[in-house]
Amino acid sequence: MTFGSSASPIDFEEVVQGLTREGYAVVDHFLDANEVAGCRSEAFHLSELQAFRPAGVGHGTDYQRAKDVRSDLIHWVDNQSSGPATVLYLERLQNLVTYLNRTCFLGIRDAEIHYALYQPGSFYKRHLDVFRDGSARKLSVICYLNDQWRPGDGGELMIYLPNDDGTEAARQIEPLAGRLVCFESTRLEHEVLPTHRSRLSLTGWLKDEKQFF
């Protein structure tokens, strides 16, 4: 089944199959080249307006900025205050959620989405996308917006997959333009390797509380 107006039809079943088999899925061309360019333009405009802020770790009383853990800049987005390209992405993501809820019974009802900008030298050390006092985040989703990314540019996503025997396997994923990565927030640790050029994505979490967007 496919949704959206992307030049390459999006098979949401790829996400279901990947999550079922390994706990993560990679779908190329979730956004086409024009849609990526639109999101990049809106993000860079926000950057010119100094709308990005240093990211932190934890939340509530546990929130802190920890440059030794992560050094990216972020800007939160939503349907009401974002530009048309960003809104298109949010709508396509909502279509994916509808499909996941219908096929996997995940009960996702909310999302937290932000632009994430990694400047040269930035990174995010190995971590799990859950807070100590909550488990609302079910799936982590990342859509990359990097034009002409090449081997050696850095900034790869490393996902660590636990094996039944206590060992683990690592999967390295390049941040290619239009690529969507989706994985289980509560189970898979991951990190962003140091980047050697500016690295941009739409990143966030699908949650089982509140109302979607």
Please, could you describe this protein's structure?
- With 213 residues, the protein is α+β, with helices and mostly antiparallel strands.
- It is globular, with a radius of gyration of 16 Å.
- The N terminus is likely disordered.
- The chain is built from three helices and 13 strands, in the order ββαβαββαββββββββ.
- The longest helix is centred in the middle third of the chain and has 21 residues.
- α1 crosses α3 and α2 packs across α3.
- Strands 3-11-8-13-6-5-4 form a seven-stranded antiparallel β-sheet. A four-stranded antiparallel β-sheet has the order 7-12-9-10, with no helix packed on it. Strands 1-2 form a two-stranded antiparallel ribbon.
- β9 and β10 form a beta hairpin.
- It starts with a strand and ends in a 6-residue tail after the last strand.
- It has one domain: q2cbj1_9rhob like domain (Jelly Rolls), CATH 2.60.120.
